[in-house]
Amino acid sequence: MNSKRIKFWNYAFLALFIAGLLMVKLGGGFGSSGLPLVDKLSDSDWVKGDKNAKVIIIEYSDFECPACAIYSKFLNDAMNEFGEHAVFAYRHYPLNIHKNSTSAAWAAEAAGVQGKFWEMHDRLFIYQDAWSKEENPEEIYNKFAKDLGLDVEKFKADYQSDATHQNVELDRKSAKKNKLNSTPTIFINGQQINNPGTYEGFRTLVREAVQATP
Q1: Cα(125)–Cα(109) distance, rounded to whole angstroms?
Q2: Cα separation, 139 vs 69, whole angstroms
Q3: CA proximity to 75, closest of 63, 62, 58
Q4: 153-178, pLDDT tens digit by residue?
Q5: Overall fold of domain 31-212
Q6: Any bridge partners for residue 87, and if so which?
Q7: pLDDT tens for residues 43-62?
Q8: Where do the structural domains in the chain lie, given as residue ranges?
Q9: In this predicted structure, what is the pLDDT of residue 32?
Q10: Secondary structure of the chain in the HEC alphabet?
């Protein structure tokens, strides 16, 4: 084998080795498509609870969706009750029928850069009627950021950043890959549930999953 061919294969093996390392680093919770899975946490998820819990609750949600606002309280209450046994991950799925849902997801992501994702998450749902009807909701998002004690100028920059937009699109593509067509869509340990209309109904599903895991 000549020296040029040896060098080629040395470089090829080196490239494969580096790719393998990257897959190990980035592969947790991501499928072969590079998108988050519905039965595992991904590095891009916003989570509550014990990340090592055996019960994994994953929600695809839209900040402008009225049903999602109701379920945000169900999920908060469930995590207060079962947080030692379950972990909850929020994923963005802004629907095209909601004109401000994508920008609201950007606002939550931008707040998350400063450690206030869940605070912005809750505020967006609580005041859904206020910002969802605005032609330019950014002023309201900026007010929320100020109320939460964020660096507003940094928030504005992160709101516009490619990284923020890509994080939202990653979740949206994951939802489309799994052929989801409505929000909220919730998975418990990889199984999509039929959303009950009451907290007691949802609590029962979570409790059953907790009891079924050793």
Answers
A1: 14
A2: 21
A3: 58
A4: 999 999 999 999 999 999 999 999 99
A5: Glutaredoxin (3.40.30)
A6: 49, 56
A7: 999 999 999 999 999 999 99
A8: 1-30, 31-212
A9: 67
A10: CCHHHHHHHHHHHHHHHHHHHHHHHHCCCECCCCCECCCCCCCCCEEEECCCCCEEEEEEECCCCHHHHHHHHHHHHHHHHHCCCEEEEEEECCCCCCCCHHHHHHHHHHHHHCCCHHHHHHHHHHCHHHHCCCCCCHHHHHHHHHHCCCCHHHHHHHHHCHHHHHHHHHHHHHHHHCCCCCCCEEEECCEECCCCCCHHHHHHHHHHHHHHCC
**CA dihedral of residues 202, 207, 210, 213 (deg, nearest 10):** -100
Q: Which residue has the tokens 């998820």?
A: 45
Reported as a single tens digit per residue, the pLDDT across 95-148 is 999 999 999 999 999 999 999 999 999 999 999 999 999 999 999 999 999 999
